[in-house]
Write a structure and sequence with these properties.
The chain has about 650 residues and is α+β, with helices and mostly antiparallel strands. The chain folds into two domains: about 1-345 and about 605-640, Periplasmic binding protein-like II (D-Maltodextrin-Binding Protein, domain 2), CATH 3.40.190.10; about 345-595, Dipeptide-binding Protein, Domain 3 (Dipeptide-binding Protein, domain 3, Roll), CATH 3.10.105. It contains 18 helices and 29 strands. It has a five-stranded antiparallel sheet, with helices on one face. α8 packs antiparallel against α11 (about 440-450), α10 crosses α16 and α15 (about 555-570) packs antiparallel against α16. The two termini are about 35 Å apart.
Length: about 650
Amino acid sequence: MKNRGSDSGSGLDRRHFLALAGGVLGTAPFWARPVLAQDTQPRAPTPSLPQGFRHGLSAFGDLKYPADFAHFDYVDPNAPRGGTLSYTPGQWALNQNPNTFNTLNTLILTGDAPVGLEGIFATLMTRALDEPDAVYGFAASEVSIEENGKLYRFRLRPEARFDDGSKLTADDVVFSILTLKADGHPILAQQLVEVIGAEVGEPGEVLVRFSGKQARDIPLVVATLPIISEAYYSKHDFKTPTMDLPLGSAAYKVGSFTPGRTITYERTPNWWGETLPAFRGQNNFDAIRLEFFRDRQVALEGFKAGAYRLREEFTSRVWARGYDFPAVKEKRVVRFELPDGRPSGAQGWWINTRRARFSDPRVREALILAFDFEWTNANLMFGSYSRTASPFENSPLKAEGPPSPDELALLEPWRGKVTDEIFGEPFSPPKSDGSGQDRKLLRRAAGLLREAGFAVKDGALRDAQGNAFSLEILDHDSAFEPHAQAYIKNLRILGIQGSFRVVDAAQFQARQNSFDFDLMPRRWAFSSTPGDGLRLFFGSRSADVPGSYNLAGIKSEALDAMIEKVIAAQTRPEMTAAARCVDRLFRAGRYWVPHWYKPSHWMATWDMFGRPAVQPTYGLPFDTTWWIDRDKATRAGIPL
């Protein structure tokens, strides 16, 4: 899953339907957390999980909302309804493309699907965005945990329906789980490895069987998988990209669209889930229209012209200087900043260690030292950001200082097998003098390259065989070019011939899937309760799986072991200590050139929206909880 990072690349964190944030259509499933490497020993379920039927699930058994809750606290249950929300994608998932689309099948790897398409499908349960990982009843009214956590029994709501009026049945749920495990997008399929079966139980019940080796969040993944129609796919090939209208069962369905340019999701008339507590005060727009632009500047001009009405800004230069058009001066367009309480994520240029010249961590550290963040931040980004050091920035999961006693207990078995750095301060990129060419840091970088067997000859850095060291920074957006060119200038001082290449979004995605790059910008945003997803980002067995998010090709036994400690943790403090160990080991590997972060959202809208007084900590669900304020729109002269 991907989201456009601050002034740069994209990443995992889909705001709407996906687990790590909130969703395009108001849900936030956990299947955004990929899984790959598996344990070899059974793992007992978290003891705090109660047995018997309950109305919700969470990783550690805690739920904020009681069984009789009326609605989530971050909604206005009396919000008015109507109108159209229009925006351009800033975050995306699976095979979705923020710039274009050529298929309406988003649940497979092949093709480029439009953003938001996964949100047309109901799920068994749905995320609460004011809790780290809780889910509550959606197509299932309740769930029972049985056989020491190896069996989850979901009771379906009899009123659940697909958009064609057909009943959503236990057979459909079983078909969905088995199909996604066998043929779904790798991000979905790989998380279902420890699902050993799904079957119809008593009338209206689905039984999902696990191996007993599953991580604590995999039942949450299953509970938030999209439910597809068995009857529909008896006539359609699930594995094939297609522009045929998909059949969903959620609050919105696919309406009009122009391939590659725009798609509209229309609210489903008389939707069966309208009065469910988890959806009261949500889905307030009659339609949600996404506009696709291949160029970021063209997209901004479209916003200025009113082609769409809401924009999350990711570029500091544009935020500082790009909003001086008449509608802003007339206060018809308003700008504001909203806090983001989620971990800020891992944004940077990921280094492809599968390629021989990047296999040595000393080389990778030299590449880190060559990037002058302080100069870049001051001169290109108006001092808007802080430097990223950890994939868990803005969260208690980030390692700080020497390891705590709990961390040492996990790390001690690896003493002598990993660098001694792990037992001290975690690695952070050093602060430069801000000159753009910090000579001290560049001398350190040159020394590391010499230690790794490289030498400058005839003006170029060369390996022992005389091959010149070159690298290409791949992107699909030219907005990042000034940052890259400043970096490339320093690389040339070291004798490295760097280049910045922009390809179209489809080629960029294909090259990412096949790991055909040197350096690539991406931002991966992680959950406050990380689990199996860490395996796909940092686990050894994901390194060579096409389409995985282990872009750097990380293969580390110690890191694998700490990931398993995160997954096996029985309490949140245990999980936190293990995650900090993951952080230490990852940072010691020098797998990326880390970028920057800010714990907030820059929002620009035409002044026509209302929003609840409370914003959830773990998402920005503007498309589900905001609404059209007709009085505002009238005062601003905005046609509805």
